[in-house]
Structure formats: C-alpha cells, structure tokens
Specification:
19 helices; 3 domains; single chain
C-alpha cells in the first residue's frame, strides 16, 4: 500500500500548508453551475428553509445509489423525473444554500477554490449511509456514523493559558491557540467553538494510540501514513512562535483538513469512525443524527419500492423496536412524564440491533401482527445500517405470506454480502492494478407497467407514482406513524 496513490490523496503529505493565493480556480462546469444557480441544481425555491435543501440532497443521494445498484434501479425514476445531479455539485449547492440562510454565502463563494482543493466536496453518495461502526468498541455495538463530513476553520486566535508551576509565586502562563471549526455532517452545519491546541494534541494522540490500534494490527504501513494526520503539534507550535497575524488561521486550515481526512481515511480503510474525533473534537452527536436521518431515508425508499414485485418479510417485533428508536422525541415539560425506575425518560431507546428472522419459524403467524413486508431497497438499507443474520424471506407482491413459496430475490439484495458496496472502494484502492473482472450477468429491470397500485399493507396509495411527498401511509406499513410534520423541532434545532 505504500505506493498506492489513494492514501496520498486522502492523507496528503507534509506540504499541506497552502496559501489561498496559490490555489488556481480549478472548478468543473458542474460545480460552477452549482455556484451560480444552487436553487436550480437542487430544485428548491429561493426562500426555502434549510431542511428543504437537505431533503433534496438526501433524495439526490438515494437516486444516485439506485443508479449504482445499491438500491432498486426503479427508484431513479420513481422518485423524480429529472436525472439526478452529480454528487459534488449537489454538495456545493447545499452548502451555498445553507450558507445563504446563515448570511455567509459570500465568504463561501470566495473560498470555493480552496475548499475544493481541501476536499470539502469529495466522496460519493454512499457517504450518506450510516454504516460506520465505532473504533475501539465491540463490532456489534449499536452505534453508527456516516462519512459525509467537511471541516473548515472559521476562526483562529492566540490565547494565554495557565500552566502548572510551583505552588508559591506568580502562576506561569504559556501561549496557546483557540480554533472555531465549521462542521458539515450529513447535511447539518454546526460550529465547534473554542477548541484549544493543547486539547487537539492530547485528543489526536489518544486516537492514534487507542482507537487506531486496530489499523496498526491490520496494516502497519497504512497506520503510519494515517498517523501523520494526527500530528498537529508542528503547525500549532509554529503558529504560537510566529509573529505573523495570519499564522493561527493557516494552522487552523491545516488542522481542519487533517481532521476531515482522518475521518475519511478510517471510513475507507476500516469502515469505522473515531468517537473521540466526532463527539469530543468536532462536538457532534452522531447518534442523534443517525436516529433523525434513518427514517427520512427509509421513507424515500418505501415510496420508491411502491411498485416492486418482490417484498421481504421482517419480524414485527424488530420493526416495533426500530420505530420506537427512530421516531423517538424527548418529552416536553408540559407532558408530565413521571420518573421511572431503571430508566431516564430523557434518553432515547437503544437501536434495535441486527435484523433477525429467527422468530419467523413458528406456525400461525399473521401479516401485520407478527411480521410485515418491506420493499427490497428498504430491506437492503436496514441490513446495511443494522446488520442481519443472512436469512432472507423474499415473497412475490401478490403472495405476501410467510408460508408461501419464496420469490426470486431483487437485484439490490441478491449479493452474498449486502454491504459489499461500501467496502468495494477500499478493496479496489488497496490494489495498484486490480485484475480484470468477468462481465456481470445481465440484470432484469423491474417492469413497472403492470404493477399493482394496491399495496400489500392494505389500502391505496394516495399519491402519484412520481411524487416524493409522503402523505398518509397505509396502516400496515412498516413506517406508519413515522415522521412528524416538516419543519419540526428536530429540524429547527439543526440550522
């Protein structure tokens, strides 16, 4: 892996202190189009709130994933008539619309070339999926994060801090830095304020020695190269010694790029994330974002699977646990929730864990009470995020019964390992010259012309096939009573 250029692209080298004046405008036509007309790229009104642009970004990612075969290819047309936009252009448009709501779009446009150079809009649509497990924890820990992270320094300053000295006499002081990082995580923007240089040194050292020990055992060469991203002492110490007023800003930009690259490197190499990096350094709450994001993606997938001829049976107990976790909201003071022993009503329930079909082996089980039927895209998404036992129960739409004959599996979940697409990039990039692969067998596209409008969940769909607006769902839908209205408190809390 030492000669492989992918790690060079992610980890960079020691020459990552680049002045903005040295960066030439190298924007592609799609990004320039997104800069000039972000509303047209995401197809949102000019005065739309930030969560509307986030919905469109999420929709664009889902349609791109359908094109790649991760989900059913029918989703590309079922969720929109226009072709999906390039992922980088959609990211740029969303960032500009979000900055416009914050009244900082001018600064973002001015720094667009440097942000593109720093990789703020790199990645792919699969970065939206919460499939990364936490490092230094058990593999089956019910915690997940996504790869869609961009970090930039929006403030840097020098500060005098007290240091440990003799008990008597004046208290000694030392020069340190304070940074403010703007973090865009899964379409949400937040500010990590007042991150000290000493805290960064200590935290990244712990990440290297504790959380990245798994990478050291698996690939020492990659560990050494990723470890350079944790070395922030040099730019911080240089900025503290320098008398130039712009030195802290330059160091902040270097550190922001390294934090962003560190998260992406662990995502690609280990399909994992650093809890210390996201939660303590960048001051994010990945568990909350996962809980808020998953039902929104699930609703899109359920709408796209409305005409799928193949459905998958899922244990209703597991779905009930999933709904209690995904649609949980903290109780309001006016609700008068009594205190309970053994639990805190302010804390959300735990995720449901791996999807299991072991209970669906008894006799006399009924649809709606003991199990439900979900579309192939939604089923693949749940297995990707939560894992599964490998037992699949596909049934034809016209014969959704546990005791009916199995149907042929849908293309998006027919692979032996459903999550193979996430690690495919890492496997291919580990090889300097991958051997040619045999051509894949032709896939039969789903015929939508004669699909039944009546769902197996009961009732009629109350929307047009091409609409993406989610109305009232059928009573037996796995997502019934799912999302609160648009613009709810959870969206308002995330600007």
């Amino acid at each position: 892996m030492a000669d492989f250029s992918f790690l060079d692209a992610i980890c960079g080298d020691d020459r990552d202190v680049v002045e903005e004046d040295h960066i030439q405008p190298n924007l592609t036509s799609s990004i320039l189009n997104a800069v000039q007309a972000p509303h047209a790229v995401l197809d949102v009104p000019e005065n739309a709130p930030p969560w509307v642009a986030r919905d469109r970004l999420r929709l664009n990612c889902v349609r791109l994933l359908a094109r790649q075969g991760v989900f059913s290819r029918a989703l590309t047309n079922a969720l929109g008539k226009k072709p999906p936009r390039a992922h980088a252009a959609a990211l740029v448009a969303h960032a500009l619309l979000d900055a416009k709501a914050r009244r900082t779009s001018g600064e973002l446009e001015r720094r667009m070339s440097s942000l593109v150079h720093d990789g703020a809009f790199d990645g792919g649509p699969c970065d939206l999926l919460h499939v990364l497990r936490p490092l230094a924890q058990k593999r089956r820990t019910p915690k997940r994060a996504c790869s869609m992270v961009a970090v930039r320094c929006v403030g840097a300053r020098r500060a005098l801090v007290a240091v440990q000295g003799p008990s008597n006499g004046p208290e000694p002081t030392a020069m340190d830095l304070r940074f403010d990082f703007e973090v865009r995580y899964c379409g949400r923007t937040s500010i990590a304020r007042g991150v000290s240089g000493a805290f960064l040194k200590r935290s990244l050292s712990l990440i290297l020695t504790r959380e990245l020990a798994e990478l050291l055992r698996a690939d020492p060469d990659s560990h050494g190269r990723v470890g350079k991203l944790c070395a922030v002492s040099s730019p911080i110490d240089k900025a503290c010694r320098s008398r130039q007023p712009e030195a802290p800003s330059i160091a902040g930009r270097v550190i922001a790029r390294r934090l962003q690259s560190l998260h992406r490197a662990t995502a690609v190499l280990l399909r994992a994330y650093s809890p210390m990096l996201l939660e303590e350094v960048l001051q994010l709450d990945p568990d909350r974002v996962w809980r808020e994001e998953e039902p929104r993606v699930a609703r899109l997938l359920e709408a796209g699977d409305a005409k799928s001829k193949v459905l998958y049976l899922v244990d209703e107990r597991w779905l009930a646990t999933w709904r209690a976790w995904a649609f949980w909201s903290p109780p309001k003071p006016s609700d008068g929730v009594p205190e309970t022993k053994g639990g805190d009503p302010e804390l959300p329930p735990v995720p449901p864990g791996p999807l299991s079909s072991s209970r669906l082996k008894s006799d006399g089980l009924k649809l709606g009470a003991d199990y439900r039927a979900v579309g192939p895209s939604l089923y693949a998404y749940l297995v990707l995020c939560h894992g599964g036992d490998g037992v699949r129960l596909p049934r034809a739409r016209g014969a959704v019964d546990l005791y009916a004959l199995p149907a042929e599996q849908a293309p998006c979940v027919a692979a032996s390992v459903v999550a193979a697409f996430v690690s495919r990039r890492a496997r291919l990039r580990r090889k300097p010259a991958p051997p040619p692969k045999p051509p894949p067998p032709p896939r039969v596209e789903e015929d939508e012309s004669d699909a039944d409008e009546t769902t197996c969940f009961g009732g009629q769909r109350q929307r047009e096939p091409g609409s993406v607006e989610m109305g009232e769902l059928p009573t037996l839908s796995p997502l019934h009573d799912a999302l609160p209205p648009r613009g709810d408190a959870s969206d308002a809390e995330w600007p």
